[in-house]
Amino acid sequence: MMGEQTEEASVTDRLLQDVVAAYRADKFVEVETSCQRILKQHPDHVASLQILAAVAGQSGAPQRGIELLEKVIALEPRRAEGYIQLAKLLRLDDRDPEAIAALGRAIELEPHNASAYNDLGLIHLHQNDLVKGLQCFNRAIECNPAFVIAQYNKALTLERQGLYGEAIAAFRQVVAIDGNFVEAHAKFGNLLLFVGDRVEGLLALQKAADKTDSVVGLMCQAKLLMEDENPTTAEEVIRRAVQRDPHNSDAHCLLGSILMELGRFHDAAVAFDLGLALNRQQIAAHHELVHVKKLSEPDRPLLAQMEWMLREKDLADAERADLHLALGKAYDDLREYSNAIQHFDEGNRLKRPIAGHYVATAHAAVVERIITMFTAEFFGRNTRLGSDWDVPVFIVGMPRSGTTLVEQILSSHPDIAAGGELAFWGERAPGFSMSGDGRISPTWAVKVASEYRSLLGGISATAWRVTDKRPQNFEFIPLIHSVFPHARIIHCRRHPVDTCLSIYFQNFSRRIEFAYDRGDLLAYYRQYQRLMAHWRSTLPVDRLLEIPYEELVADRETWTRRMIEFCGLEWDDACLQPERNPRSVRTASVWQARQPVYKTSVARWRHYEPWLGPLQELLVSADRPEFG
Prior knowledge:
Layout: H1 2-24, H2 28-41, H3 46-58, H4 62-75, H5 80-92, H6 96-109, H7 114-126, H8 130-143, H9 148-160, H10 164-177, H11 182-195, H12 198-209, H13 215-227, H14 231-244, H15 249-261, H16 265-278, H17 283-291, H18 300-312, H19 317-333, H20 337-355, H21 360-373, H22 376-381, E1 392-397, H23 403-411, E2 416-418, H24 424-428, H25 442-459, E3 465-468, H26 477-483, E4 488-493, H27 496-505, H28 518-538, E5 544-548, H29 549-554, H30 556-566
Parallel strand pairs: 1-3, 1-4, 2-3, 4-5
């Protein structure tokens, strides 16, 4: 008898090993068959019941799994594991209160169970109770400091709270514990890019992209290709990701973003629609569908869906901000300006604390130091330092002032390559130094010149001119002109109120601290005016060309010929049709850049005159030549 029991136990153990192997291989039919064989002999076999419950949850039958786990708990009421697994299936069945109760019981039984606290935190996170969620993740980490998934969830929660410094530190801890955690590297990289740390952000994305056997790794590889201005190859990579996981909503949305850059707006809309069909709460899909075209009456259902989500869904502030800003753009397209401004105001109110507050007095002090330090005498002292290389053409100005249009026009010329928005000068500025008598370090200047030449050479080794259209490079003009005194600088000017409103209406992918409040916009614009007036008085007149946006769209040929002449090149008729320029566009103006030059954005501020607030002050100076 004893031998028969031993043999029977051995058979059961072998069957259970087969079950585990089949489960790991997603062979659920084999799992079901083997588990039923075990349960036929041992109806109370707990491990088989738990595995069948897990299969039920993954197969879309959570209720069956719940019934199996209730039997497990009846068999072993003092074990926390059954309650934890039950809670997972209750969550799948949208029964959060019961799931919370099950996890509460698990914690009563095992007060130091890190998994129970982590899963409880996930429920609070799903309910957008970020404070309770963070408390649970911290408790899980106290129970088990090496529990990497709790560390990861803590980092996600801090990011959703807008606590970016703490979130970055938390993600750094996650990847230190598990260097192969692909999703953590991806989230870490995207957050670093958002806060402006491009160098470390790209390194983090590269670590995720190295894992090309995963969909997340392929998505990061595609993002890196986009950062490298290679959207065609990025499309090939992201399509591999979609093929591997056709139900991944994020992958479809990333494909849509890449197609937008390539100017294939219809295809992009299809990708976003698929992303939305797979995940009705995919905020990115809603947002991008609004920006992939100019909306009209047939698009009302999309607006209704977003309004419903704002009313009915418990969303994080960042998600609500994205929806409000998308609705603002939608109602602006439909010429319902009162509705539009309400959504723009609410979106910016939510986004301002997330992006960080602009301190006007501190910025004014920085500008004052720049003006005091970088005088005509400064440029004279360092005149021999600069390179004679004249390939760069810098396009500067306020964001949304026409810099993308100017680059599209210029790069339509066969001898001009578009560099897009290069982060180079902002990244090199912290290493800038000069002596007490105002002379730049020759070592720094030579090194920077070499690195920038290499960067532009990678964009095009044959072009006579290469553009760099980072708008806020106007802050780094002393460094640019000192290192490359023969480089050309084109300053884009647009009506100050149109400029500020366009910034206020835009949902930027990177953090711009002054963009979310009219008073901040006014203060920043005034400092921009001061700086540009200073450069106007100190730079050689043949190095700086100012392009008034309104005059450019009214008399495109005259101003385009002037720009091409300024660049020292022969005329080419292709410059009059920038909408046919096939290059990818990676700015907020991606849709507009593909349209024929239009005048509807001129004097757009008049639609919003009742709501200008502090920006009214800029109307007084808007007619002066130096207004921007």
